[in-house]
Design brief:
Elements lengths: L2 E2 L11 E5 L3 H12 L3 E5 L15 E2 L10 H12 L5 E2 L5 H13 L3 H28 L6 E2 L3 E5 L5 H13 L5 E4 H7 L9 E5 L3 E3 L2 H14 L3 E3 L3 E5 L6 E3 L2 E3 L3 E5 L6 E3 L1 E4 L5 H6 L8 E10 L9 E4 L4 E6 L2 E10 L8 H14 L11 E9 L6 E4 L6 E5 L5 H16 L17
Parallel strand pairs: 2-3, 2-17, 3-11, 5-21, 7-19, 17-24
Antiparallel strand pairs: 1-11, 4-10, 6-10, 7-9, 8-9, 12-15, 13-14, 15-16, 18-21, 18-22, 19-20, 20-21, 23-24
Helix pairs in contact: 1-7, 1-10, 4-10
This protein binds flavin-adenine dinucleotide.
Flavin-adenine dinucleotide binds next to helix 1, strand 18, strand 22 and helix 10.
């Protein structure tokens, strides 16, 4: 058990706040709360940044404005599932558990739901990079974001029309791309010379240098600013009794208790924010809220010395996986596996990533390369939108989770929004799409 406390300095302290979960969402939230004068205690059962935030692709995917559930996805789902090298995996032993979620997922593809989810994603994505710049400027780490650009690539030349259609659709939604092929493509990404026919180039796209290092940096800033970190598993949150008490001359609302897995007395805070990623569902059930949150498992390979250089983050439109350069090496990520929190990783999913990456970069098919494998849990709701809200009956208990494939992209903005909500300030955007009881 690690329990570290630092003294408070600087700003006027407003209230005590417990933040549950020290993934990228919890870390950004904890720092933003400190900026606003709160006395923050961060809980995690592990060291910070070891959940989904550890092994993502590091890509700030603001162009991903289409929710996961669309008529197109539903039409292609069976083919994707049956394809042995396809991106969709639904383990048979989990099928019965996932059925209710799938029903909601299918409903989310209805035109009016889809339009509203798309709107919800667009407003988050459009404001994400600015929020990251504010967060990183504040801790003197603006170099952590790199404007690397993104290439969405097609191997098959017969799919030029598909790229043009995608380009038109993106442009209608305000996203500028350049269709590149031939010499222009080679100039941008020489390593794909032999394997890629054409691509859409997103020149403004950004990535982070290294997702886990970013988590560690945010955590050390949090601690240096007087934060407290408690490495214990939160078992139960108990909203206050409704009684008010007087402290330091000011009236405060009732306290919220946070019980951990240890024998100690519960911790007590004036406000609590749940940022427990894919594990948030159980904590919400304990406070009477039921959210259809699933663990959408994703896999990665990291190749420290790949012997091949990529300039951009690369997404394969046909194979549905992403790869890109990070400080730790070349990272290949993908797979949507609806398999819950308990099953271990499936070996064949790593092999699918190997197979697909070799198709784009044949040099990687080299048995002497050192490759590390990892699986993590994306927190995913059926409409692909996160929850950024407060408890309907207990306004001091707030939530920020469920950012599916976009948690890194959204983290700094989600932090600003949830803290604005907590302070009853005007929020930068309409938060109604992210209500906790929308299902
Ligand atoms: C393969 C893969 C690639 C991805 N690529 C990208 C990408 O390129 N760009 C992007 O924007 N997003 C990407 N994502 C998604 C992104 O990583 C997630 O959305 C994001 O990391 C979620 O952050 P989080 O803080 O909500 O959850 P997590 O990082 O999972 O953190 C939750 C934390 O809560 C803790 N916790 C849970 N329950 C408790 C409890 N009861 N008590 C104490 N602690 C608890 C956990 O230990 C964990 O540390 C990817 C995800 C995967 C899996």
């Amino acid at each position: 058990m690690l329990h570290t406390e630092f003294g408070q300095k600087g700003k006027e302290v407003k209230a005590s706040l417990g933040v549950i979960g020290s993934g990228i969402i919890g870390l950004c939230t904890a720092l933003e709360a400190q900026r606003n004068g709160y006395r923050v205690t961060l809980f995690d059962r592990d060291e910070p940044g070891l959940g989904a935030s550890f092994g993502n692709a590091g890509f700030l995917a603001t162009e991903l404005i289409e929710p996961l559930s669309t008529p197109k996805t539903l039409r292609s789902a069976l083919t994707l599932w049956l394809n042995p090298n396809g991106p969709l995996s639904l383990p048979l032993q989990y099928l019965i558990n996932i059925a209710p979620w799938l029903v909601k997922f299918i409903k989310a593809a209805k035109p009016e739901s889809l339009a509203s989810s798309r709107h919800g994603l667009i407003q988050l994505n459009q404001n994400s990079i600015g929020a990251w710049q504010r967060c990183l400027d504040d801790i003197g780490a603006s170099e952590q974001i790199v404007k690397s650009g993104y290439l969405l690539v097609w191997e098959s030349s017969s799919k030029l029309d598909e790229a043009l259609k995608q380009q038109r659709w993106l442009s209608e939604n305000g996203i500028v791309t350049e269709l590149v092929q031939g010499e222009r493509l080679v100039e941008l990404e020489p390593a794909l010379k032999e394997t890629v026919s054409h691509a859409l180039h997103f020149p403004e796209a950004c990535r982070v240098r290294e997702p886990y290092e970013l988590c560690k940096l945010l955590f050390s800033s949090f601690m240096a600013r007087g934060g407290t970190f408690i490495q214990e598993e939160v078992k139960q949150i108990t909203p206050g009794t409704g009684q008010s008490s007087l402290k330091a001359g000011s009236k405060i609302e009732s306290q919220i208790e946070v019980k951990t897995g240890t024998e100690t007395e519960p911790y007590s805070f004036e406000k609590v924010i749940v940022c427990a990623g894919a594990w948030s569902k159980k904590l919400l059930e304990g406070v009477g809220l039921h959210v259809p949150l699933e663990a959408e498992r994703g896999y990665h390979l990291t190749i420290p010395e790949a012997g091949v250089m990529l300039n951009h983050s690369i997404g394969s439109a046909e194979r549905k996986f992403v790869m890109g350069p990070l400080d730790s090496g070349l990272r290949v990520v993908g797979i949507t596996q609806l398999g819950g929190l308990k099953l271990g990783p499936f070996k064949h999913c790593f092999n699918i990533l190997r197979h697909n990456s070799y198709k784009l970069l044949p040099e990687l098919n080299n048995p002497s390369l050192n490759i590390t494998e990892w699986m993590g849990h994306r927190p995913t709701l059926p409409d692909s939108l996160p929850v950024i809200d407060r408890h309907p009956q207990c306004p001091q208990l707030l939530f920020s989770f469920g950012n599916q494939h976009l948690g890194l992209t959204h983290a700094a903005l989600a932090a600003e929004l949830v803290i604005q909500l907590m302070q009853n300030s005007t929020t930068k955007m309409d938060l109604s799409p992210y209500r906790v009881n929308r299902f």
